[in-house]
Amino acid sequence: MTKEKIIEVHNLTKRFGGFTAVNNISFDVFEGEIFGFLGANGAGKTTAMKMLIGISNPTSGEALVAGFDVKTKTEMVKRSIGYMSQKFSMYDDLTIKENITFFGGIYGLSRIQIKEKTKKLVIELGLEDVIDKLVGSLPLGWKQKLSFSVALLHEPKIVFLDEPTGGVDPITRRQFWEMIYAEANKGTTIFVTTHYMDEAEYCDRVSIMVEGVIEALDTPNNLKTKYNVASMNDVFLKLARNVE
Amino acid sequence: MFILFGMPIAQIMLFGFAITNEINNVNIAILDKSKDAETHKIINKISASAYFKINQEITNEKQIESVFKKGKVKAVLVFEKNFIKNLQTLKQAKVQVITDATDPNVANTISNYVNAILQNYTHEINKNNKPNHQIQTQTRLYYNPELKSVFTFVPGVMTIILMLVSAMMTSISITREKELGTMEVLLVSPLKPFQVIVGKVFPYIFLSIINAAIILLLGFFVFGMPIEGNIFLLAFESVLFITTALSLGILISTVSQTQQTAMMLSLMGLMLPVIILSGFIFPISSMPLLLQVISNIIPAKWFIIIIKAVLLKGATLDVIWKETLILVGMTVFFIAVSIKKYKIRLE
Amino acid sequence: MSIIVQNISKSYNKIKAIDAISFEVKEGELFGLIGPDGAGKTTIFRTLTTLLLANEGSATVAGFDVVKDYVAIRNSVGYMPGKFSLYQDLTVEENLKFFATIFGTTIEENYDLIKDIYIQIEPFKTRRAGALSGGMKQKLALCCALIHAPKVLFLDEPTTGVDPVSRKEFWEMLKRLQKKGITILVSTPYMDEAVLCDRIALIQKGSILKIDSPENIIKKYDKVIYNIKAKNRHQLILDLKKYPSQYSVFAFGEFIHYIDNSSTFNSIDLQHYLEKQNNTEIEIKIGNTTIEDVFMDL
């Protein structure tokens, strides 16, 4: 890849008391890339992600997201990223329209912009008929697709997706990934964590974290060749098993 | 919505009507050793005021102790012998105002009011009397001669703490199990609902007893509060009240699904009424009739009556049996409702 | 039969959570309920563990009726709800002891059953359950559900949100438990776990779509799946979707699973078409069917 670096991480470390959750990790993510951030439970994925989106302060090391230092330029970092997690998606007791308006407002979009975006987004997702329904009444898959679109509302350079497809049915899961592809094609960088190993194959590059350290970082194909296995699942098992 | 709008309205009404340091309709007793025309006039004057209600007349000094113990009256007015004669010959006569100072504020107010009425009366009669007649009042404070506020706040704080720890903690700890999902596992186990609840409640009984003991010891040693009554009776009544509060906590937990609701219910539904309507800070007798009626369903009111009687007046069970029975009744009621409401299944 | 479910329906506020569900689980079987969130899996579990009363239908567990004999069922089953139901502020050992006590047994009595699993968490037995990693918590929860040697084990999404390593270990544990004669009903949203069950029920939106062994389900699937690969995956998906005779196009690991609905389908034609659309490094071959393919086609 000859593209620009959009996330640069140097020796990033986070300690909680005596426990090192993230231990001196370094990596780069390039513009327009789909970057898979994998790891077992408790490997430090979430902690690392929290530091990158500027809601957790690193103990040491530095990270530049969209060119801004996550320690000092937190506000600028937050402006240039979108974030979507499995747990917090949307306000269940607001309608789809209200949710979009609300999040648009948070990111400082004008009323006209919000109106236009809402229109476009609703048509893209095929939600025209349910726009005034409460988000809480939507199936999980739709909610996730909607909250992905909302995370993109302010046209961020990078989107962070924290297990976006957990518990979603297989078809919706694929549709979700097709949305991710479409967005990546537009040049948006996607930073995604998942527990589905087949989804790891969809990423351009994948990093695997084990006990606070990045054990492997490469394209899925190279990783499979390197560890001489047939699937990403086996790569993962091989790497994580060694430690236990 | 109800919590957002209903609660503030309820609170402001409660505070507005209940919080008053004025007194009305205070029950007093009269010991009239003279029984002459003058004392008769004074008594009429006093009973005509809105502040006092003459509850009974007693005939000798020995009865004073017993009417106070029963808690029927807040003050006793004693007219000396030969009142009218003293007034006419010596130009002065004495009235003794004996107040039940277990509630120092109320005691103070009562003696001030009586003084004012008597002064008023002397003014009236002195219009055609030269030299002026004088009615001297002598104030005596029963149970709490130094008017220490500790005498009210120790029983009050004890009541609040026991209510808080027992009701709030039980309800929260049971709803927490619902939230964590452990209740689901406990339900799908051979344990009977009764066992689950006793298991949850037991630690808090223990904790509350320790709390009660600490408060009493502090009151006794640090603030010099007397413990006049039987220590076992005191312990028995405290355990009874703890049980009442715990059963109330269980009841709250059966109707709330989350810790938050349990907390809101306990705080809003229990704490404030306990503080305002129990008679701890504001005399119940001065509240509007409606609030007086409502105060009867507040367990804390009965416990405060009991504990003050036992602590400060050395009352025995024959005096407070009624209040004790009320608490027992409430406890049985709460437990019965909880058992009925407790679900062996999820919603 | 260890579990018999007949026409169970349950609604919450007029919304049907499960609709006329029927299935049977044989003694000693490892039976999987496979479906996404909101399919009704948890409702089925709660009905069978006597926590919910169904609106319609009947069910028995270990020969006991879920309504009438609920006490007997509660005595003889182990249940691990979706959320990890442990006391976060008790240690590993205390949790286990607690659950042993409420079921009127001791750790020693049934130690054989949990030994395999417990030795893995034993080094942390003085640690508070709240401080355990996801995989560890799940092992502890399983120990707690097993401590009274239940005849039937209900595991509601035990592997959700758990990493692949822990998931794999967990299923190995289940296989060992099954050998000890315990009937296991397990639910999962992960389709790849389906093949590890003896028989599975595929459920979605409160209805069962199919019940069979995973092998049979795959065998009976009559469509041919092509694994297709190209350099630009997104472009490939878009182009395949435009191919006139396409039936379905789904990303599947490193390949795209493509199903065609034409009887005269020829992979060379498709190759030409894709090349014309400027796809490079094209690879087309016949692939293996997975449970997930079947599920998506139901």
From TrEMBL, chain A:
<feature type="domain" description="ABC transporter">
    <location>
        <begin position="7"/>
        <end position="236"/>
    </location>
</feature>
<dbReference type="GO" id="GO:0016887">
    <property type="term" value="F:ATP hydrolysis activity"/>
</dbReference>
<dbReference type="InterPro" id="IPR027417">
    <property type="entry name" value="P-loop_NTPase"/>
</dbReference>
<dbReference type="InterPro" id="IPR003439">
    <property type="entry name" value="ABC_transporter-like_ATP-bd"/>
</dbReference>
<dbReference type="GO" id="GO:0005524">
    <property type="term" value="F:ATP binding"/>
</dbReference>
<keyword id="KW-0547">Nucleotide-binding</keyword>
<protein>
    <submittedName>
        <fullName>ABC transporter ATP-binding protein</fullName>
    </submittedName>
</protein>
<keyword id="KW-0067">ATP-binding</keyword>
<dbReference type="InterPro" id="IPR003593">
    <property type="entry name" value="AAA+_ATPase"/>
</dbReference>
<dbReference type="Pfam" id="PF00005">
    <property type="entry name" value="ABC_tran"/>
</dbReference>
TrEMBL record, chain C:
<dbReference type="InterPro" id="IPR027417">
    <property type="entry name" value="P-loop_NTPase"/>
</dbReference>
<keyword id="KW-0547">Nucleotide-binding</keyword>
<keyword id="KW-0067">ATP-binding</keyword>
<dbReference type="InterPro" id="IPR003593">
    <property type="entry name" value="AAA+_ATPase"/>
</dbReference>
<dbReference type="GO" id="GO:0005524">
    <property type="term" value="F:ATP binding"/>
</dbReference>
<protein>
    <submittedName>
        <fullName>ABC transporter ATP-binding protein</fullName>
    </submittedName>
</protein>
<dbReference type="Pfam" id="PF00005">
    <property type="entry name" value="ABC_tran"/>
</dbReference>
<dbReference type="InterPro" id="IPR003439">
    <property type="entry name" value="ABC_transporter-like_ATP-bd"/>
</dbReference>
<feature type="domain" description="ABC transporter">
    <location>
        <begin position="3"/>
        <end position="230"/>
    </location>
</feature>
<dbReference type="GO" id="GO:0016887">
    <property type="term" value="F:ATP hydrolysis activity"/>
</dbReference>
<dbReference type="InterPro" id="IPR017871">
    <property type="entry name" value="ABC_transporter-like_CS"/>
</dbReference>
